[in-house]
Design goal:
Helix content is 40%, strand content 27%. The protein has helices at 2-6, 14-22, 66-103, 122-132, 139-142, 157-168, 214-236, and strands spanning 10-13, 35-43, 46-55, 107-112, 117-120, 173-180, 186-197, 203-212, 243-244, 250-252. The strands form 3 sheets. It has a 5-stranded antiparallel β-sheet, with helices on both faces. A 3-stranded antiparallel β-sheet has the order 1-2-3. Strands 9-10 form a two-stranded antiparallel sheet. The model has no long low-confidence stretch (mean pLDDT 85).
Length: 253
């Protein structure tokens, strides 16, 4: 506790410890050692403990130069602890991200510059199985064997390839495509391709997210068809027809 409070290494003999006791700086709960060395254990600029060696029998067992060795050991232990904490944080973040991705109704995946899949969710797995009759697994990602599958019809192949190239250049891509499912139903999807930037600004992967917009698209097409029919009938009228607002400005003719 005294070492943590002072935030610096301590080299104390029995006499110095007794002096600290008299000053109320430390409390002793056992026999006083003949020699005591302690260095703070610092991880990410925060003291989390103390590395200690001591002797209750030999006051000359440790020299002051042993503080340097203890400091080195403390540094190595701190590196190991810090790395483990970092790995734990990464694991926790990945677990949270996976939970979010898997709970989504969207189809989510990512690829590298060689068109190989680097991640995907269960919705992507289901899509590939339904459309291609292929069952893929996360284990295959580690072997770098899986190449991306189209989530749209084959007629979009060159279009999608161009969109990926643009995404790898750093531009987010947004587009709509359609495909025919195994039951012959037309499926419209809205897709985003987003570059994944590394800390140095490089782009090694692109993430894709796609969702079904069939119902919305069919409504849009129905409205568009109705407008086209209206326009066709409107233009075929033999009469002069126009519409104005209250100010007399013509809004349709």
């Amino acid at each position: 506790e005294y070492t943590i409070k002072t935030e610096k290494p301590q080299y104390l003999n029995e006499e110095e410890i007794n002096e600290l006791i008299k000053k109320g700086e430390v409390k002793i709960f056992a026999d006083i050692p003949k020699i005591w060395l302690g260095v703070p254990l610092t991880v990410h600029n925060r003291i989390i403990g103390v590395i200690v060696v001591k002797s209750h029998s030999d006051p000359k067992k440790y020299k002051k130069r042993d503080i340097d060795l203890l400091n080195f050991i403390s540094g190595q232990i701190a590196l190991v602890i810090g790395r483990r904490q970092y790995e734990d944080q990464i694991f926790e973040q990945r677990a949270k991200l996976k939970a979010v991705v898997e709970s989504s109704q969207h189809i989510i995946w990512s690829i590298d510059r060689k068109d190989r899949l680097t991640s995907f969710n269960e919705n992507y797995v289901q899509l590939v199985e339904e459309n291609y009759g292929i069952v893929i697994s996360q284990d295959e990602i580690k072997k770098r064997r899986l190449h991306r599958f189209l989530v749209s019809g084959p007629e979009y192949d060159h279009f999608i390839q161009y969109k990926y190239e643009q995404a790898f250049n750093g531009d987010v891509q947004h587009f709509e495509t359609k495909s025919i499912d195994p039951n012959g139903k037309t499926i419209w999807r809205e897709t985003y391709l987003s570059p994944i930037f590394l800390l140095d600004g490089k782009i090694d992967e692109v993430a894709g997210i796609s969702h079904d917009i069939t119902e919305k698209k069919l409504q849009e097409l129905t409205v568009q068809e109705s407008e086209e029919k209206f326009r066709s009938i409107f233009e075929s009228l033999q009469d002069v027809f126009f519409r104005t607002d209250r100010a007399g400005d013509i809004t349709m003719i």
